[in-house]
Structure formats: structure tokens, C-alpha cells
Design goal:
Elements (H helix, E strand, L loop, with lengths): L1 E2 L21 H5 L5 H13 L5 H12 L8 E2 H7 L2 E2 L5 E2 L6 H10 L3 E2 L11 E4 L2 E4 H18 L16 H11 L9 H11 L2 E6 L5 H18 L6 E5 L2 H20 L5 H9 L3 E2 H5 L19 E4 L7 H10 L5 E6 L12 H6 L29 E4 L10 H10 L3 H8 L6 E4 L4 H23 L3 H10 E5 L8 H15 L14 E4 L13 E7 L2 E8 L2 E5 L7 E3 L2 E3 H4 L4 E7 L10 H8 L2 E8 L2 H8 L9 H5 L3
Parallel strand pairs: 5-6, 8-12, 8-13, 9-10, 9-11, 11-12, 14-23, 15-21, 15-22, 22-23
Antiparallel strand pairs: 1-3, 2-7, 3-4, 6-7, 16-17, 16-20, 17-18, 18-19
Helix pairs in contact: 2-3, 6-13, 7-8, 7-9, 8-9, 9-10, 10-11, 15-16, 15-21, 17-18, 17-19, 21-22
Length: 638
């Protein structure tokens, strides 16, 4: 027997089900619940004699939810979302209770709390409408919603130190100067986003790749400093991102924009140094993460910064957002930046998508309200705090990549297939059963790999790293046909055959590209950083490219790394490649989603090639991620 869900399956081996929670047995056998859910239910059954089977089942459902990215589970959707299959492919009927009886039992149970209960009544399970939550996730959701709405509703007289003057003519003039007279259109979304970021307690800047998010952020940062300086104030600002790689990319991108501003004479060298001097931090480092202890910064010990800008917000989980909001001063300015259509955090929540709220008829998030304008009756106080940047500046007019990304985003599989199969130079489709097409594609990938290895062996680390970035295979899965390990093994074997100095058996053989898989503060490398094993003055070293040029580390200083001939789509977030090869698994894979494919395709700058069956492409495009959460409803009441 096998089991499939919207996000995967729990192995059934060695999962013992105590008699007290026998109601879970068929679900465990189907692979729906694992050891953690069984253990929690058994603990509650032991501590609360007489607890009903319906409550134990709801508890297991709520405990399972975060493992698959859900904050909660909606009982009227459980039977549809959690589906098991027999080995022959027939669906397995699971013994779910009727929704009415289930809800009635939960409402009467002493083990379950509800929103009407006092905060002192702490129970492991919360029943809120049709949703069941573990207690802590319910509190995270409430805390995030309350904090965001409070910041959005803050009147200008309460804003300090960035207000009350940042929204006046001074800041408007500064913004116009930084964006330039040729962009003085009042409807310019980048300019609008900057004004909102400087005049509101919270600003959400949403947009796809190449829409100018970093361009806008750099000018928000400069405008905030210039305005504060004009008023005789010293501004403390922080840039942050959820991962080490994202933080490094943010710092590099902002530095490039600041350099452009300096070169055009819009800001001076002293301000440029201030804007780039602190770089960007991971959110964990910003909050003062220490192993085994709470964050150093919280509501009682808030961050000292007046302005906090967070990039790649789509990768921020609900629990981490709760911790961040708790630590940002109530009077500080908060700017959240990201792409709501990209893959969400591996952990629970879809915070960025929930923040941007309802979309227009084409599924595009709306701006909802002009800056400074009144909110219509019943609208969220977030109205006017969300700005969507829609124009892609990265791609040329008529770009196939941009059109493909848009077709995927709106779920138009026919249009996407037409673009991929239309013979365009920048979008290509190799069917997974096309042996000749796959062989030609593999030759291109291997040719780049040979360049990497040959340059690294002769000690030219810069050329090796440049070649490693030109074309990259992005795999949806790690194992299995067309997965990460499959591609890496074939590329590595072909490269070793072509470059005799490269050995497949030696971990630190020159010619091997590597990716760091965990943050390493001591050595200054982060999860997602890429390097190449090479020689430097006769010594085997690992070379990394930084903003200041090449940096070398001894292999003995690097522990958690993996070979980087290919990478997963999840790991590719925040990266760009001239040519991205997107490799999809069979259509039965639960990992196939619209957001996964959109994320992969938008990593390409010049060309994207999708390796897939038609069925897998259609499955991905027609299956948007459906994570259960109540946050959007709390932020954007209908």
C-alpha cells in the first residue's frame, strides 16, 4: 500500500500505534500520520482520560499540518486534501468522521479551546471556525495578523523617528531626485512603492524577477537616510533576508544600485558607504539567534533600527515572521519585499501571498488603494500598503521567458505549451522520452562542465566559476529519474572522462564545483554559496567569488557541502542563470506545483529549457499550492 497527499507521504515502517489511539491505525497504515502525530495523540490520551477519538484524530491532523506547510487544517477539506492510494492506483477510502459530527465533538471537548476562550485557557488544540490548529500556530497567526494591522493602521503622528516628515514634500522631492526626472509619472509603481515605504508603518513591495524590487529598495534606503540627515537625525537601518545566500545576494544587489546612484552623482561617497557598510543579515542573525535559546531580540528587547527591509519574504515562515514582528519596534518602519508567486517557505505558512491579499481578475495582486487615499468601507487597513511591480525590466520586449512565466502564473497550460513548443530561441521543451533531444541537451550541459573542470584544474578559478554559472540544471526532486542525483552522476561521469585530471572518487579533486549546504558564520560562507575546487599557489583550495573578488578556503575548513553540477529548484531561489534547464518528475509526483515551475523558469535570464512530459507540465501548471492558513482572511476580511 502507498499513500499520496498534496505534499508527500509518511513511511509506515516502525510506527507503533498504542491502543489508546487505535483510531489512528488505518491512517498510519496509509502513510498519512507518522511517529510525531501518534506520539502527541498518545500523550494527550494519557493526560486526558476519556478524550474522544474525534479529538485525537483532529489533534493528529493539526500536528501533521506544519510538516506539509499548512498552518492549520480545514476539516471540510481534509478528506479531499489527504488522499491515500492502493498499490494498484485505486484510491483508498479513509474513515474520516462526518464534518458536522466532528465539529460538534470538538466544540464540546475540554481538550479543545476556541477563540472565545480567555487567553489563560491553554489547550493543545484550537477549533476556529472550520480550522483546527495546534495552539502555538494559532497564536503565531493571531500575533502576525494583529501586529501587521496595527502597523498598517498607525497614524502619522505616531510614527517616530521616520515621521511625521518623511511623507511631506521633502521626502517626495528626495524620491523624485533619486528616481530621476524621466520617471516623474505619478503612476510609476516603483516610485509609488518608495513613497509608501517612507510614509506608512508597513509597506509590502511585491513583484516577479526583474521588476525592479532591488532598484526600489536601494532608493528607499537612500531616501530615508537623506531625509533623516536633512532633519539632523541619525537613521539606523537594517537589511535582512531569510537565508544566508539571500542575504548575500541582497547586499550585492543593493551595493550595485548604490554604486549606480553614486556614479550618476545622486548620492555622495559618504552616504554610499553608510548604505552598504553593514551589508545584509539573515533574519536569524538580525534577531540574535543563539543555539538552544530564544532570540536575543523580542518585544522586551526590540531591535534598535528605525527602518527594517526584508527581502525574499516569500521564504519567511509564519513562526519566523511572528518572531521578526515581535522584535521590530512598533514605531519603526518595516518594508517587506518578495514575489508572492514563488515557492513559499519550507516551513509552515504562505505569509507573502497572504500579505498581498486578493488579486484582480487575472489573478494578479492589486495595489488596492492609492497612497494616502481613503480606504473603502470594510476594506483592510493594509489597503494602500501593498504595491505590485508588474513590468519586467530584466527581459527584452517580447521575451518568451517573461511570457512563459506569466502563462504559468495564471495557470494557462495551453499558452505555456505553445510557447515552449513554438521554436523560440529563449524557450525550449525537450520531452522526457526524446532520446535525441536529451542527448543534445546533455552535451550542452556537459560541455559547460568540462569548461568548469578544465579551468579549475589549471588554476583559473574565475573562469571556472563563470562557466559553472552559464547553464544549470534545476531538478524538482533529488532522487529518481531526471532528479538531482541522476543528472549530477551523468554530468560528473562525462566530465571525468573528458578531463583526465578529474577523479570521481576524490572529494576534493580540482575541477569539482560545490555548494555549501549550511550557514558557516566562522568561515563566512552560507547555505547556497557556490565555489569550485581548484589550485592556488600549488595548494588545493576552494574558490568562492565575492563582491571583492576571489576568496580561497582550505577544504579542511568546509564540512557541509555537496557537488554542484545540478541543484534543486528549491535551492535555486534567489539565483539567476543565463540558461536554466528545468527537469520535472513524472506527473504522479506530489511536488509538482505551479509555484515550483514558476520559480524554476524565472531563474533563467536568457534561455530556459524544460525537460518534461506534457502530462507533468500540465499537472504543475494546473496545480497551485493550496496551503491551509487563516492569515489572509484575518488581514483581508471579505
Amino acid at each position: 500500500m502507498t499513500a499520496a497527499t498534496t505534499a508527500g507521504r509518511t513511511p509506515v515502517a516502525d510506527v507503533a500505534v498504542p491502543e489508546a489511539v487505535a483510531v489512528l491505525a488505518p491512517f498510519v497504515q496509509a502513510g498519512v500520520f507518522g511517529p510525531s502525530e501518534v506520539h502527541l495523540a498518545a500523550t494527550v490520551a494519557r493526560l486526558e482520560p476519556g478524550v474522544t477519538d474525534e479529538v485525537l484524530l483532529a489533534l493528529a491532523v493539526a500536528a501533521r499540518a506544519p510538516r506539509f506547510g499548512h498552518v492549520c487544517m480545514e476539516l471540510d477539506e481534509v478528506a479531499r486534501q489527504v488522499v491515500a492510494f492502493e498499490e494498484d492506483g485505486d484510491s483508498l477510502v479513509l474513515p474520516w468522521p462526518s464534518v458536522e459530527a466532528w465539529g460538534r465533538t470538538l466544540s464540546e471537548s475540554g481538550v479543545v479551546s476556541s477563540p472565545r476562550d480567555s487567553p489563560e485557557r491553554v489547550r493543545p488544540l484550537v477549533w476556529d471556525g472550520m480550522r483546527v490548529y495546534l495552539q502555538r500556530y494559532w497564536h503565531y497567526e493571531l500575533a502576525v495578523a494583529a501586529d501587521l494591522l496595527r502597523r498598517a493602521g498607525r497614524v502619522r503622528s505616531q510614527r517616530n523617528p521616520l515621521a511625521p516628515t518623511l511623507a511631506d514634500a521633502l521626502s517626495d522631492q528626495v524620491i523624485d531626485d533619486l528616481f530621476g526626472p524621466d520617471r516623474a509619472d505619478p503612476g510609476d509603481r516603483q516610485r509609488l512603492a518608495a513613497r509608501r515605504s517612507l510614509s506608512d508603518g508597513i509597506s509590502i513591495i511585491a513583484g516577479g524577477p526583474g521588476t525592479g524590487k532591488t532598484h526600489t529598495v536601494a532608493r528607499v534606503l537612500a531616501a530615508a537616510h537623506l531625509t533623516a540627515s536633512a532633519e539632523g537625525r541619525d537613521l539606523k537601518a537594517a537589511l535582512a533576508a531569510p537565508t544566508g545566500k539571500a542575504a548575500v545576494r541582497m547586499a550585492e544587489a543593493v551595493a550595485a544600485e548604490v554604486s549606480a546612484l553614486t556614479g550618476s552623482g545622486l548620492i555622495g561617497a559618504d552616504l554610499a558607504t553608510r548604505l552598504t557598510g553593514s551589508g545584509a543579515l539573515t533574519i536569524h542573525r538580525l534577531l540574535g539567534w543563539r543555539p538552544g535559546t530564544p532570540f536575543r531580540h523580542d518585544r522586551q528587547h526590540p531591535l534598535p533600527h528605525d527602518l527594517v527591509i526584508v527581502d525574499e519574504t516569500s521564504m519567511v515562515s509564519l513562526p519566523l515572521m511572528a518572531k521578526l514582528l515581535d522584535a521590530v519596534r512598533p514605531d519603526a518602519q518595516l518594508v517587506l519585499v518578495g514575489d508572492p508567486f514563488q515557492l513559499s517557505s519550507i516551513e509552515a505558512g504562505t505569509v507573502m501571498a497572504d500579505l498581498v491579499g486578493p488579486g484582480d481578475d487575472a489573478g494578479q495582486p492589486g495595489d488596492h488603494e492609492p497612497a494616502g487615499g481613503p480606504s473603502p468601507a470594510g476594506a483592510s487597513v493594509l489597503s494602500g500598503r501593498v504595491t505590485v511591480l508588474r513590468r519586467m525590466h530584466r527581459f527584452a520586449e517580447g521575451s518568451g521567458i517573461a511570457a512563459l512565466a506569466e502563462a504559468i502564473r495564471i495557470g494557462d497550460a495551453d499558452a505555456a505549451l505553445d510557447l515552449l513548443g513554438g521554436g523560440r530561441a529563449d524557450t525550449a521543451w525537450v520531452r522526457d522520452d526524446d532520446a535525441d533531444g536529451l542527448a543534445m541537451l546533455e552535451q550542452s550541459v556537459v560541455a559547460a562542465g568540462i569548461e568548469v573542470a578544465a579551468a579549475a584544474v589549471r588554476g583559473d578559478a574565475g573562469a571556472a566559476l563563470a562557466a559553472a554559472q552559464r547553464i544549470k540544471v534545476l531538478a524538482a526532486i533529488r532522487r529518481g529519474p531526471m532528479g538531482l542525483h541522476d543528472w549530477s552522476s551523468r554530468i560528473e561521469a562525462a566530465v571525468a572522462d573528458a578531463v583526465p585530471a578529474v577523479s570521481r572518487s576524490h572529494r576534493w579533486q580540482a575541477g569539482r564545483p560545490i555548494m555549501v549546504t549550511a550557514n558557516d558564520q566562522l568561515n563566512g560562507v552560507f547555505n547556497g554559496d557556490v565555489g569550485v575546487v581548484t589550485t592556488n599557489h600549488g595548494e588545493t583550495m576552494v574558490a568562492f567569488m565575492t563582491g571583492d573578488g576571489l576568496r580561497y578556503l582550505a577544504p579542511s575548513r568546509l564540512d557541509q557541502v555537496e557537488t554542484w553540477w545540478a541543484m534543486t529548484i528549491h535551492k535555486s531561489q534567489g539565483s539567476e542563470f543565463p540558461h536554466a534547464v528545468v527537469s520535472l518528475p513524472p506527473p504522479t509526483s506530489p511536488i509538482l506545483t505551479r509555484e515550483l515551475l514558476y520559480t524554476a523558469v524565472t531563474r533563467a535570464k536568457e534561455q530556459v529549457t524544460v525537460v518534461s512530459s506534457e502530462a507533468s507540465l500540465r499537472t504543475a501548471i494546473e496545480r497551485p499550492v493550496a496551503r491551509a492558513s487563516g492569515l489572509r482572511g484575518r488581514l483581508w476580511p471579505s
